From TrEMBL:
Coiled coil: none annotated. It comes from the Bacteria. It holds the Pfam family Metallophos_2. Its EC number is 3.1.4.-. This is Phosphoesterase. GO terms for molecular function: hydrolase activity; metal ion binding. SUPFAM superfamilies: Metallo-dependent phosphatases. InterPro entries: Calcineurin-like_PHP_lpxH, Metallo-depent_PP-like, Phosphodiesterase_MJ0936/Vps29. Residues 1-152 form the Calcineurin-like phosphoesterase domain. Its cofactor is a divalent metal cation.
Length: 167
């Protein structure tokens, strides 16, 4: 099972559209995970229409329309892999301990908010992934997203992808 992990698209505030490379990954993915800050419901509509399966949550920049359609925390079983998605996990200081306590029955937690790519495993074995943002790099050198695979209930092949800089 192929996964695409994105977050913090901030459309149309930070970009007019998702980059073509991301849409190609949407088409190739079995599951698209979006960790919040969509900003406009049209992005959700388009991802729902073009994804085989979409798992998403709302973020702090998402209004009432998106909050009515999306949960704060999403959970899914992906062929035995226990996945959770949330927008915000708080400061990087103590993140692993907080997430271990909040998500004890989870194998992988995808989060966003900071626009900073993240990939660590906690002492309890929880994999924490932040794909960054495909549209708003903030202080990062590149806009980013992640891909991964689920094989026999295990997450494999996590890869961070950098998008070409404009102009």
């Amino acid at each position: 099972m192929k996964l695409l992990l994105i977050s913090d698209t901030h459309l149309p505030a930070r970009a007019r559209v998702l980059p073509p490379q991301v849409w190609a990954e949407v088409e190739a993915a079995d599951v698209v995970v979006h960790a919040g800050d969509w900003v406009e419901a049209g992005v959700l509509d388009e991802l729902e229409a073009r994804s085989k399966r979409l798992i998403g949550v709302y973020g702090n920049n998402d209004g009432a329309d998106l909050r009515a359609r999306l949960p704060e925390i999403a959970r899914a079983d992906l062929d035995g892999l226990r996945l959770a998605v949330i927008h915000e996990t708080g400061s990087k200081q103590g993140r692993e301990q907080r997430c271990d306590a909040q998500f004890p029955d989870t194998d992988v937690l995808v989060f966003g908010h900071s626009h900073i790519p993240w990939d660590t495993t906690t002492s309890a074995g929880l994999r924490l992934l932040n794909p960054g943002s495909p549209t708003d790099r903030r202080r990062q050198p590149f806009c980013t997203y992640q891909t991964a695979r689920v094989e026999n209930g295990t997450l494999t092949g996590v890869e961070l992808h950098e998008l070409p800089r404009k102009g």
